[in-house]
Amino acid sequence: MNTTRLIIVAVGGQGNLLSSRVLGEAALLSDIPIRMSEIHGMAQRGGVVESALVFGDAESTIISDGEADVLMGFEPLETLRALNKCNRDTVVISNLAPLPPFTVAIGKGVYPTLENMQALIRAKTKKLIAFDAVDLAKKAGNVMSVNMVLLGALIQTEILPLTSENVKEAIRTKTVKPFVETNLKAFELGFSAAKALA
Fold first, then answer.
1. How far apart are alpha carbons 196 and 32 in whole angstroms?
2. Category of 192 on φ-ψ map: left (φ > 0), alpha (ψ -120 to 50) or beta
3. Are the beta carbons of 90 and 68 closer than 8 angstroms?
4. Would you tell me which of 27, 103, 145, 174 could form a disulfide with 32, CB atoms 3.0–4.6 Å apart?
């Protein structure tokens, strides 16, 4: 079985870990080997959270620089910061709604423009699928469903060896019951957004 390497980057509180658990469950439902690792950093203080998921035959969860087949970023600047994991064949999926670090808020830093960040990513990868996932999450009924919007976009690319049906089943089992329908709607909105950009 081919190996597919996925990096997910987010700011603490954006739901990166839930999306990783959903993908892990979907892989189990699909009888696909998966290895996962997470780096939490200063997540509770708005720091970066990174997950590495390796689907297929692999002996390690380590995804070295230039090895990612897919990069999914919940925040534009964090997506750019993880660009070193990508190569010319990598597909990047990124939320375009920024969450600037506190250094920007206190005037000690400058947040790059979305246009510059997208240009840098496009110059070094195969494809960038970028849209405002926060807006779609709000349309689904919960701004916290950004992770499910991005999962929908990820599955639409068909890069991972997972079906929409198995991912949706994993959303049903891994999501707290009151949010299941909202998360499924968010997933579908992300799927449609990526399809429109294909």
1. 28
2. alpha
3. yes
4. 27
Q: At what angle do helices 164-174 and 16-29 cross, to 10 degrees?
A: 120
* Contact status, residue 25 vs residue 173, Cβ threshold 8 Å: yes
Contact 168, 184 (CB under 8 A): yes
Q: What is the CATH number of the domain that holds 104?
A: 3.40.920.10
Nearest CA-CA partner of 172 in 41, 22, 24, 62: 22
Q: By residue range, what is the domain housing residue 18?
A: 4-197
Q: Tell me what pLDDT residue 30 has.
A: 96
Side chain identity, residue 152: G
Identify the pLDDT of residue 41.
Answer: 62
pLDDT at 104 over 90: no
CA distance 26 to 156: 15
Domain count for the chain, please give it. Answer: 1
Cβ–Cβ under 8 Å, residues 82 and 76: no
